[in-house]
Amino acid sequence: MEQTYIIGEIGQNHNGSVDLAKLLIEVVARPVVDKLFGEKLKGMDAVKLTKRDLKQELSASQMARPYDSPHAFGNTYGAHREFLELSDEAHLELFQYAKSYGLDFVETLCAPGALRLLKLFTPDKLKVASRDITNLPLLEAMAETRLPLILSLGMAGKKELDEALDVITKYHSNISLLHCVSEYPTQYKNVNLHSISYLQQHYSAYTIGYSDHTIGIATPVAAVAMGAKIIEKHITIDRKMKGTDQAGSLAMDGIQRMVRDIRNLEMALGTKEIFICDAVKAAKEKLERSVATLKNLKAGHLITEDDLHLLSPGSGYKWSERDKITGKRLICDLPANEIIYPEHLQK
To answer: CATH number of the domain at 5-269, please?
Structure first.
């Protein structure tokens, strides 16, 4: 069974708090159980944080712009961004915390200056945000590390994607491409999951996945059904918390349901063949039809097709096997509406 790599994106949903980020890691690490069948399922594989270098983030006027959103953590947009930015040491602490729970750690790096994190630790994968798909100097700096790269394509057409790949593949080809729509939340009419099929067909050298910004869990589960090998979804402690991404994220119950449904879907996809599985055999025997007597028959009776019809259970001869019965004599009396078994027939 091939398993999907599921990333819980913390992003800025830590609201500037290391403790809150740790709590999100703990939530991701909780076991996922299908209560109906009592089956313990594989949970999320990774958490993801974002590292910005505010000196390489916004123009001076944008940094100084007054910011009066109900989600603001500062009077200016620059102050807001600074509040939400965890230190390099905090990222190291959270990397170590995720590792203590057996989780992979993915970092979105938003500027060449943010690569200084790699002096402290080595993430399992690096992520390129949708907005940076055309930031070719950043892509080159990240590709030079030769760490696995995940590209979100929420703002990319074919031209932008091909230009990005031209830069990265000079260094390596360990690349994953995530279909994405940079609309928060994404309207279902704009999701276009068939982009996954397009990427699978035209970029088959790379791992194809889906980064989801819709409300709920239906689209990421559908993406897995279409063959997405990576799913990324925003996570939170409480969807009512302050913060622009909180309402569109999954809280604990949603995380559990999404992972449960993806893992169950992986099992459900099975193999490309048709067969009778072991779990069906009892129902097959109980419910299928077998050749039975249509009327009372005496010992020595020569059975004809006119003596027969079909009844459950399915433990006897099938209609396609009736030639094993017709033309044979009974060795005992059989009442009407009873299954005919080999021991009732003359050898």
So the answer is: 3.20.20.70
What pLDDT, in 10s, does the model give residues 103-146?
999 999 999 999 999 999 999 999 999 999 999 999 999 999 99
Pick the CATH number of 278-344 from 3.40.50.1100, 3.30.1850.10, 3.90.1210.10, 3.40.720.10: 3.90.1210.10
Q: Where are the domains of the chain?
A: 5-269, 278-344
Write the secondary structure of the chain as one string of H (helix), E (strand) and C (coil). CCCCEEEEEEECCCCCCHHHHHHHHHHHHCCEEECCCCEEECCCCEEEEEECCHHHCCCHHHHHCECCCCCCCCCEHHHHHHHHCCCHHHHHHHHHHHHHCCCEEEEEECCHHHHHHHHCCCCCEEEECHHHCCCHHHHHHHHHCCCCEEEECCCCCHHHHHHHHHHHCCCCCCEEEEECCCCCCCCHHHCCCHHHHHHHHHCCCCEEEEEECCCCCHHHHHHHHCCCCEEEEEECCCCCCCCCCCCCCECHHHHHHHHHHHHHHHHHHCCCCCCCCHHHHHHHHHHCCEEEECCCECCCCECCHHHEEEECCCCCCCHHHHHHCCCCEECCCECCCCECCHHHECC
Whole-model pTM: value is 0.90
